[in-house]
């Protein structure tokens, strides 16, 4: 009987599937055959010799020492696409929040209410203070047209945006399948130069470290709004803070808050909520559990 260790709280529907297959599943197992992890940091994890695979309930595998696992014959799975719907919806939300000062307006109303003042009488002041542009007719650049980026590109067209998509690994034909209305950018500079909003959906690799830095932002339109719900290190924090202070960047939405960026009033910092929906947690848990079972029972390797 196989033993599966959970390193995070994993949606019960995934664990039920494992238990139905008669696996022992617990967070207290000492020598597991498989590990099921969400975001827990495994970079310093001591691998027991029995460990055969690690399934990451999510897309990115930056919390797992993938090279070391390869050397030790431990297969690492992820669940690409399983949380894409949830991330896409948060990006759409980020687009709107970066434009319309809804957060500023909510804070303002709350402050008035806490002071016990009459809100109705002050509404006119709020209307004038919290003005922001519409998305309709603006340009959006989507960097990376994988599971998440493709969905955003598709939906942003429906919002009336002109969408540029950039993905060096995607053919023009494949980009067309996402939406014939998405403009296939030949290079990333096309995105930088043309877009009012830029959202990043590439994995974090050595080659994508600080993809958005001062040089990239220098090419962008003044007042650009940047959204990063992919990985913290894709954007250079020092450079973004500088670009915000100079007015080059009107708003930065990040799912990876830190002390440097989160204090800025032009930064919307979210505590890594991209995949935080019950639907996405269920999808990821089910897919990860299936990958473990299919590997341990049948030797099949999917999404590794
Ligand atoms: C992912 O890698 O899938 C995302 O960062 C979402 C998450 O795991 O919470």
Automatic annotation (TrEMBL):
The enzyme's E.C. designation: 1.1.1.399, 1.1.1.95
The keyword Oxidoreductase is assigned to this record: yes
Pathway(s): Amino-acid biosynthesis; L-serine biosynthesis; L-serine from 3-phospho-D-glycerate: step 1/3
Superkingdom per UniProt: Bacteria
Enzyme class name: oxidoreductase
Keywords tagged on the record: NAD, Oxidoreductase
Molecular function per GO: NAD binding; phosphoglycerate dehydrogenase activity
Entry annotated with the keyword NAD: yes
Chemical reaction(s) catalysed: (R)-2-hydroxyglutarate + NAD(+) = 2-oxoglutarate + NADH + H(+); (2R)-3-phosphoglycerate + NAD(+) = 3-phosphooxypyruvate + NADH + H(+)
Job description of the protein: Catalyzes the reversible oxidation of 3-phospho-D-glycerate to 3-phosphonooxypyruvate, the first step of the phosphorylated L-serine biosynthesis pathway. Also catalyzes the reversible oxidation of 2-hydroxyglutarate to 2-oxoglutarate.
Family: Belongs to the D-isomer specific 2-hydroxyacid dehydrogenase family.
Protein name as catalogued: D-3-phosphoglycerate dehydrogenase
Protein species of origin: Sporobacter termitidis DSM 10068
Section covered of the full-length record: 1 to 304 of 389
């Amino acid at each position: 009987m196989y033993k599966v260790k959970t390193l995070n709280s994993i949606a019960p529907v995934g664990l039920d599937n494992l238990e139905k297959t008669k696996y022992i599943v617990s967070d207290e197992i000492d020598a597991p055959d498989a590990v099921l992890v969400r975001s827990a940091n495994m970079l310093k994890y001591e691998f027991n010799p029995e460990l055969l695979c690690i399934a990451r309930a999510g897309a990115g595998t930056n919390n797992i020492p993938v090279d070391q696992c390869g050397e030790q014959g431990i297969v690492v799975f992820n669940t690409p696409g399983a949380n894409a719907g949830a991330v896409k919806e948060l990006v759409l939300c980020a687009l709107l929040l970066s434009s319309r000062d809804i957060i500023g307006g909510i804070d303002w109303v709350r402050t008035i209410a806490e002071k016990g003042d009459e809100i109705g009488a002050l509404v006119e002041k709020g209307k004038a203070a919290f003005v922001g542009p519409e998305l309709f007719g603006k340009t959006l650049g989507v960097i990376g047209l994988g599971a998440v980026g493709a969905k955003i590109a598709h939906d942003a067209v429906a919002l009336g945006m002109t969408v540029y998509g950039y993905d060096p690994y995607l053919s023009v034909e494949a980009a067309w399948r996402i939406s014939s209305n998405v403009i296939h950018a030949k290079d990333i500079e096309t995105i930088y130069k043309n877009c009012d909003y830029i959202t990043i959906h590439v994995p974090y690799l050595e080659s994508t470290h600080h993809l958005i830095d001062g040089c990239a932002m220098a090419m962008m339109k003044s007042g650009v709004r940047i959204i990063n719900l992919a990985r913290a290190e894709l954007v250079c924090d020092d450079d973004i803070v500088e670009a915000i202070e100079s007015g080059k960047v009107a708003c930065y939405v990040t799912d990876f808050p830190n002390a440097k960026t989160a204090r800025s009033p032009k930064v919307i910092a979210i505590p890594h909520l991209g995949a935080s929906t019950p639907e996405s947690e269920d999808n990821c848990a089910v897919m990860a559990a299936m990958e473990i079972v299919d590997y341990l029972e049948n030797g099949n390797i999917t999404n590794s």
